[in-house]
Amino acid sequence: MRYGLIAALSASVAFTTISFARAADLEVTHWWTSGGEAAAVKTLAEQFNKAGGDKWVDGAIGGSGSGARPIIVSRILGGNPMGATQLNHGRQAEELVQAGLMTDLTELAEKEGWKDFIRPASLLESCTFEGKLYCVPLNIHSWDWMWTNPDVFKQAGVEAPKNWQEFVAAAPKLKEKGIIPLATGDGWQVSGMFNVLTASLGGKDLYLKVNKDKDSAALNGPEFKKVIQALADARSMADPGYVGRSWNEATNMVMTGKAGGQIMGDWAQGEFTTAGKVAGKDYDCLPGLGDHPVVESGGDAIYFPKNKDPEVTKAQLKLASMLVSKQTQVAFNLAKGSIPIRGDIDMATASSCMKKGIELLKNPDNIIPSGDQLRAPDTQGQIESLMGEFFSGPEMTVDDMQKRFAEIMESAH
Ligand code: GAL
């Protein structure tokens, strides 16, 4: 007994000594694997490693967020947590936070005054549960953009479009030249595009009525029907090769003149930047499809699953603090094409497209919550499969789609 106690004591002394000398390997999972994304994540790893001690262990998961998120969540639920992980702002980690599986960052955030410089306030609200903070907003990524290649419109003898209607009108001319009007991929890309069409063509009020209030009259009404009709137009402008195509392959089609444009989040900008392309010359951007310029307050947040090792917890807090720092915000967002979560930094070298986004963000009337902030992951999944079905062929009519979409939203929690 006595011997056992001593042995236990000396073991704990030894552990304490070792734990002081030791730093942590912090595995960070994310789905940032395209050229622009990889360049952005490198800025984080380099800065974290430069601080000394702890080490960034890169846990990139190939494919898209839709594939990566279930892997991330099941590792945390299964007791094999990573040191930190990307998820989107909003409800994706809701259940993990409620189950007490995430490190509480409240003390750090209060000490560093995050509330005073992180904007818009909805970003921190998305990280908050019962008054405590459980994630770090890293960027604002807005879905509401169309990326075009002005050159292909010139080749087809039409003016480069300034809005969605002009884009649709130019499509036949592009087709005549063997150019695919709209580059896209399947699954979440179609569902994201639909959200953009809702906000950009229908406007902010309709977007909120449909996605936030789940308003039956709006969901079944004529204005929303026009948005679904626009998705049918998009369907007729895409090529059959869209199935299985990654978003960055689609961006590449625009960049290389195989396609006229792509509706995609502003992470597409990271691809243009990495390829050395210049906004306003080699490519153009239409926020809100040129109709209703809005920016979503969606984006990426980093969560820190609870870990039994105190060294890992220390490293988590160190990374959390670094992510909101001025230096990280500039370097990461310039590479990624996203908007920083703080306004007190110098973004003079940003592209003209990114500057448009930063300007839009200054007026709260232009900001809309993202789909991930408004809908739970299971609702998002149902919508994604409905969109996939609709996009795959003209068999599903606009009316069928409207009815089924309304049913999903009316029963969403
Ligand atoms: C989003 C994420 C972006 C970008 C994009 C495509 O979910 O917020 O940062 O990575 O996926 O991979």
Automatic annotation (TrEMBL):
GO terms for cellular component: periplasmic space. The keyword Chloroplast does not apply. Residues 1-23 form the signal peptide. InterPro entries: Bact_solute-bd_prot1, SBP. Gene3D superfamilies: Periplasmic binding protein-like II. Keywords: Periplasm, Signal, Sugar transport, Transport. Its main location: periplasm. It is found in: Periplasm. Belongs to the bacterial solute-binding protein 1 family. PANTHER family: ARABINOSE-BINDING PROTEIN-RELATED, BINDING PROTEIN COMPONENT OF ABC SUGAR TRANSPORTER-RELATED. Part of a binding-protein-dependent transport system for a sugar. This is Probable sugar-binding periplasmic protein. It comes from Phyllobacterium leguminum.
